[in-house]
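worker-03 picked up job from queue 'complexes'. Input manifest follows; two sequence lines, order preserved.
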Amino acid sequence: MSETKLPLYGDLADPTPKISVRGLDFFYGNHQALYANDLDIAPNRVTAVIGPSGCGKSTHLRVYNRIFELYRDQQAKGEVLLNGESIFAPSVKLLELRRRIGMIFQKPTPFPMSVYENVAYGIRLHYTVAKSELDGRVEEALKGAALWEEVRDLLNRPGTALSGGQQQRLCIARAIAVEPEVLLMDEPTSAIDPIATAKIEELVEGLKGRYTLVIVTHNMQQAARISDFTAFFFKGYIIEFGETKQIFTNPKNKKTEEYITGRFG
Amino acid sequence: MKKASNTRRRELTDLTMRLVSGAASLIGIFFLVWILWTVAKNGLAAFNYDFFTALPTPPGIEGGGLANAIVGTLLITAMAALIGVPLGLFTGVYLAEFGKNTRFGGMVRFTINITMGIPSIIVGLFVYTLLVLPFKHFSAYAGAVSLAIIMLPVVARTTEDMLGLVPNALRESALAIGMPRWRAIVSILFRSARSGLLTGILLAVARVSGETAPLLFTAMNSPYWMKGLAEPTANLTVTIFNYAMSPFDDWKTLAWGASLLIMVTVLGVNLFARTLLREKTR
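worker-03 finished. Artifact:
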């Protein structure tokens, strides 16, 4: 869409990117949803993905852990590198890829089991651990998701019995329990109340030292508050990418400016 | 503009519709209650200790019960469930999870729908030629197979429907922590849909426990305790068929008792299944 080449993360900061996307096209059947996406995701930082509804933000994110492959009519073309290695390479073990790249969804989706089991399930899936060690790991994951104090006496309750905000943090605990490198968050606060949202934003702040975070959000203030880098999506194209401060104070593209000042979207 | 007469005609049509549909449901209910009442009244007369514990007696000899038929029906139904439920369950899994938009999945779904409409007597005849004629004897397992064939499509369709109700987000979040597909299905989706799945299975069991025609050609009937699965086996529905047509009054009473027993069991299973489903939707 734009003739001038967009700056990539590599042009803005030093370390090699955690994830590099090059020339990514995406199709729902015959409908193309993403066009030639290029994007670098900074390690141990928060990258926000913003843009109007239906512009391919979630679609873009869902390529990283290849979750879109669940649907037969969806197809991705192009390259996505995790630590410099293609996630589509035949040698990549899909289950291991998904352990390394966790995902949080728009609506909290606790498994139909106890709070404890929700977290323990993934640990048992990927690691062989003794019961005593498992308890410790579950506690650690729940602490990591800032949920431990609230659920330490409710570990045997069903996960669905928690409040919406707690359920979402349970999903975060479940994701970090398997020791991922990247956490993908697809509008993680759009289905929960403002106070719970504030808690999750605070949590994201705490998580970014240990994990690489990519967060899709409709909330402009949220992107400005919690992210280090921002990518602006429009109609399947990445229109602008840069440091969050620059995107929000001095956007280079007119569309970006119109969107963040609320003139459309 | 003849507005007034128009309104009146509409009101009249409305009233007629109400009366017709009200009357139709009253007639339906009337016959249902009549059947229930008749079966209950006549059946209760047969219920005594002997009915549940004794073997049938030859005509003319007092007493006797249907213990062998009760055991036979339970056994044949259990065996049918053992065959039909896993096959139906996994067919449903295929339809909902793997073959959703595939040509083969569509073919399977179509076949399942057709199978559901096959008259049960044809299933009985089919199994008769398949498992009775070649072995030259009626058997409990032939009965079980024919009931299983009737159960399979029912279980498959409810499984597909119930798994279809599980939100995709749950499927995705299971896969997103690196769960293999089969594990996501068995430990997350089955668990999430468990009351619905159980309801489907129970309704399928209730459905076949009243079937007569498929057993007439397969398990047949017997006045004795069964000696093995390869023997003609007593069962309640064929007993009803035989005894109700007989000229002996005590046999007729036993047939009423068997009818009541089946009716109460099916009703109980249905009620239980619906409670389960209500719990799920709550």
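worker-03 released lock.
Chain A touches chain B through 27 residues (CB under 8 Å).
The CA atoms of residues 141 and 235 of chain A lie 37 Å apart.
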